[in-house]
Design the sequence.
């Protein structure tokens, strides 16, 4: 462990940001696929995916703005 850099915290932030960034982008792309299918089930799945993306955005803002 370095006296200036907390490597454990750095890895946690790196993994969380990669999962959240790539994961939300993948879920958003699934919602676009569901919307483009035109089926009722596809639209319902797209709505669920968009709710997950919105929840991720709200959670990210909450974490950043929490005291």
Sequence:
């Amino acid at each position: 462990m370095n006296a200036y850099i907390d490597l454990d915290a750095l890895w946690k932030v790196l993994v969380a940001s990669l999962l959240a960034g790539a994961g939300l982008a993948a879920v958003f792309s699934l919602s676009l696929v569901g919307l483009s299918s035109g089926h009722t089930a596809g639209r319902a799945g797209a709505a669920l995916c968009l709710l997950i993306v919105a929840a991720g955005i709200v959670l990210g803002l909450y974490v950043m703005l929490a005291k």
